[in-house]
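Title: Comparing notes on inverse folding

I've been comparing how different people in this forum approach sequence design from structure. To keep things fair, I'm posting one structure and asking everyone to reply with a full sequence. Here's the target:
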C-alpha cells in the first residue's frame, strides 16, 4: 500500500505530503482545489505522461515521491519501496526506485504491478471493443498465460517470415518486376563502358575545345615571336661570341651556354608548333566528347556521384540479381516454416478460444452479479467471443465484444452503444471489482467514479468501493456524500492564497470534521438538517 505521497510544483500544488492508510481513502474538497492534480501526480509517479503545462508557474522543476509498504516484494527494503520522479523544465527526467536510477519505461513497468488508476478515460476504454479482450484475459489471468506467451513468440516468428518473404520478393510478379529493373540498370551501365579516370580526361579536352580560339591565337603569336625574332637573334649572338671565344675562356663559356639556350629554344618552337597542330580538332570529335560527358552525367544522376560509385553500384546490382535468382529455394523453405508455425499457432489459438469461451460466461455472470448490487438489476452483460477463421491476430484468433441489455425487453446492444454516464461508471466499477478479485492489484485509485449517479445507485457504489477496500488499498476522489460517509479515512483538499499565489492544502479529517464535510457535500452548506443527514450516512457505514 501507499504510505506517503510527496508532491512538489504540480499545478497549484506547491509542496504537500499526504500519509495514506489501508482501506478506503476518500478525497473531497472544493472544485478546482487540486483533487485531480493528486491523481495526475500518481499517474506521473507511475510512469505516465508529463507535460510542461503541469509544472507550477514560475518553477523549473517538478517532483513526485511515494513510499509503499510491500513486505513480500523482492525490491522492498525493510518492507518499504521508495519511488521518485523529478522532471525539469528542459524535459529531463530522473526516475529512481530505492535510490537506483531507472528509465521512465522501467518505472512504468515496475509501478504497473502495484497501482491501477481508473479515471474517466477508462470509461472511454470501455467504449472501445479492442479493450474488451484485455478485460477478459485479465479476468482469466494465469490460466491462459502460458498459451499466450507461446502464441506471441510464434506470432513474432510468423510476422518476421512474412516480412522476409516480402523483402525476398516472395510474390512472383514483384520478383520479376525487380529483376527486370535491375537487369536494365546493369545493361545500361555495362553498355556505357566507363573507365576510372575518363571523366577528368574528357573534361580536360572539353576545356581545351571551349578555349580553342584563344589557345590557337596565342600559340601562333608565341611561335612567330620565337621563330622570326628569337632564334635568329640568338643565332647572330652566338656567331659574335665565337669570334672572341679564343681570347678568354669566359667568352667561350658564355658562347657554350647561349648555344644550349639556342637548342632548347628550337625544341620549344617545335613543341609549340605541335600544340598548334593538336588544336586542329574536327567537329565530329567535339560532338563525341559532349555526348560522352552527357552520358556520364546521366549515369551519375541515377547511380552515384562519381564514376567509381556508378561502377560500384553495378557490382551491387550483379550480386542482387544473383541473390534474387537463387531465392526461390530459400523462399520455399520459408513458406514451409510459415505453414508449420501457422499450424502451431492455430492449435494454441484454439486452446485459448476454448478457455476464453468458458471464462467469458463466468465473467458475464460475475459482472451481472455486481451490476445487480449496483442497482442495475435489469442490466445483463454478455461477453461474446467470436473465432476468426481466416485471420491471425497478435492475441490469437478471437474477437471479444461486451454486449449489454440495460432494460428488460430491450434488444441486446454492444456495450459501446451505452450513452448514460451513470451506467458507464457503474459498469466500469463492476468490471474493475471482478478484475480486482482476479489480479490481486494491491492499490486501486478511482477518479470521480460517481459521475452521473445519485440516490440509491450512489449507496450501491459506496458499498461496492467499501467491499473492494476490504482486500485492497482504495483511493477515491468523490463528490457524493454516500461515498465520503463510507470512507475509512477522509481527506479534505482546499486552496489558499499566500503572498498572491494560490496553493493546494490537504489534511486528514477528524470524525467531527468528517461529519461536517459530508454535510457540506450533501447540501452545499453546514446546517442542522445536513448534519443530521451526515450522521445518518455515517451510522450506516458503522452498521
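Reply #1:
Here's my take.
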Amino acid at each position: 500500500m501507499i504510505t506517503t505521497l510527496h508532491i512538489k510544483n504540480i499545478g497549484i500544488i506547491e509542496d504537500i505530503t499526504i500519509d495514506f492508510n489501508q482501506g478506503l481513502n476518500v478525497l473531497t474538497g472544493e472544485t478546482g482545489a487540486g483533487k485531480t492534480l493528486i491523481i495526475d501526480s500518481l499517474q506521473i509517479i507511475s510512469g505516465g505522461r508529463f507535460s510542461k503545462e503541469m509544472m507550477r508557474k514560475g518553477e523549473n522543476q517538478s517532483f513526485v515521491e511515494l513510499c509503499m509498504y510491500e513486505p513480500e516484494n523482492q525490491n522492498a527494503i525493510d518492507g518499504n519501496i521508495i519511488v521518485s520522479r523529478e522532471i525539469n523544465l528542459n524535459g529531463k527526467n530522473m526516475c529512481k526506485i530505492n535510490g537506483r536510477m531507472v528509465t521512465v519505461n522501467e518505472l512504468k513497468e515496475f509501478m504497473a504491478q502495484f497501482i491501477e488508476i481508473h479515471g474517466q478515460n477508462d470509461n472511454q476504454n470501455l467504449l472501445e471493443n479492442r479493450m474488451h479482450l484485455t478485460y477478459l484475459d485479465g479476468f482469466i489471468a494465469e490460466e491462459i498465460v502460458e498459451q499466450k506467451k507461446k502464441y506471441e513468440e510464434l506470432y513474432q516468428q510468423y510476422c518476421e517470415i512474412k516480412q522476409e518473404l516480402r523483402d525476398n520478393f516472395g510474390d512472383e510478379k514483384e520478383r520479376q518486376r525487380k529483376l527486370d529493373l535491375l537487369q536494365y540498370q546493369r545493361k545500361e551501365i555495362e553498355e556505357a563502358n566507363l573507365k576510372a579516370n575518363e571523366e577528368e580526361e574528357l573534361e580536360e579536352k572539353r576545356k581545351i575545345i571551349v578555349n580553342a580560339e584563344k589557345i590557337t591565337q596565342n600559340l601562333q603569336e608565341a611561335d612567330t615571336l620565337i621563330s622570326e625574332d628569337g632564334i635568329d637573334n640568338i643565332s647572330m649572338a652566338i656567331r659574335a661570341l665565337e669570334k672572341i671565344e679564343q681570347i678568354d675562356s669566359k667568352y667561350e663559356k658564355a658562347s657554350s651556354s647561349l648555344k644550349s639556350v639556342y637548342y632548347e629554344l628550337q625544341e620549344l618552337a617545335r613543341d609549340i608548333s605541335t600544340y598548334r597542330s593538336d588544336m586542329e580538332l574536327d567537329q565530329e570529335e567535339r560532338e563525341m566528347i559532349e555526348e560522352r560527358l552527357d552520358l556520364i552525367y546521366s549515369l551519375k544522376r541515377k547511380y552515384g556521384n562519381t564514376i567509381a560509385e556508378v561502377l560500384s553500384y553495378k557490382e551491387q546490382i550483379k550480386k542482387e540479381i544473383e541473390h534474387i535468382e537463387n531465392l526461390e529455394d530459400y523462399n520455399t523453405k520459408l513458406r514451409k516454416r510459415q505453414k508449420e508455425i501457422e499450424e502451431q499457432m492455430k492449435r494454441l489459438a484454439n486452446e485459448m478460444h476454448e478457455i476464453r469461451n468458458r471464462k467469458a460466461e463466468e465473467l458475464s455472470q460475475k459482472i451481472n452479479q455486481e451490476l445487480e448490487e449496483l442497482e442495475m438489476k435489469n442490466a445483463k452483460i454478455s461477453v461474446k467471443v467470436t473465432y476468426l477463421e481466416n485471420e491471425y491476430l497478435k492475441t490469437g484468433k478471437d474477437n471479444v465484444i461486451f454486449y449489454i441489455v440495460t432494460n428488460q425487453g430491450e434488444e441486446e446492444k454492444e456495450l459501446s452503444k451505452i450513452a448514460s454516464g451513470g451506467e458507464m461508471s457503474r459498469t466500469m466499477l463492476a468490471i474493475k471489482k471482478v478484475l480486482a478479485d482476479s489480479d490481486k492489484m494491491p492499490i486501486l485509485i478511482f477518479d470521480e467514479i460517481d459521475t452521473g449517479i445519485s440516490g440509491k445507485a450512489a449507496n450501491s457504489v459506496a458499498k461496492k468501493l467499501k467491499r473492494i477496500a476490504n482486500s485492497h488499498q482504495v483511493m477515491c476522489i468523490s463528490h457524493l456524500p454516500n461515498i465520503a460517509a463510507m470512507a475509512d479515512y477522509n481527506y479534505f483538499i482546499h486552496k489558499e492564497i499566500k503572498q498572491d499565489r494560490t496553493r493546494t492544502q490537504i489534511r486528514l479529517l477528524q470524525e467531527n470534521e468528517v461529519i461536517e464535510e459530508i454535510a457540506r457535500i450533501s447540501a452545499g452548506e453546514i446546517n442542522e438538517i445536513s448534519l443530521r443527514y451526515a450522521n445518518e450516512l455515517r451510522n450506516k457505514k458503522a452498521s
